[in-house]
Amino acid sequence: MFIPVSPKKEDLYKAYITCLNPVLKLKPREIETLDILARTYLSLRSAVKKGQVNAADIYPKMYSDVGRKIMQDAIKMSPASFTNHVCQLRKKKILTENNELPSYITELETLKEPLVVKYTIESPKA
Hints:
This protein is mainly α.
């Protein structure tokens, strides 16, 4: 079965994470948290390309007080809840120990061809 998905640019990460969720096993608020982290990363990476931000400053700016506040407000989440969801993403090994995003998230925007997610479901062996 083939189901094409063509999300808007602002919904790209959420659609991608949702497609991967049978493997990632994230809760809805963890998906929202990962989505806002990815979108913030993308925004800062765009600023790097324009020369407005140093590449080494992406993660420090994301997790600064101002960066956290912007992300929390965007997804209507309290500071404590946001921190807990980031910790859960780290415990599930979605984020690194330094709260960095994995390459399968950060490189999504650079794909030259459509992304195909393929699942193979086998019957349980008796």
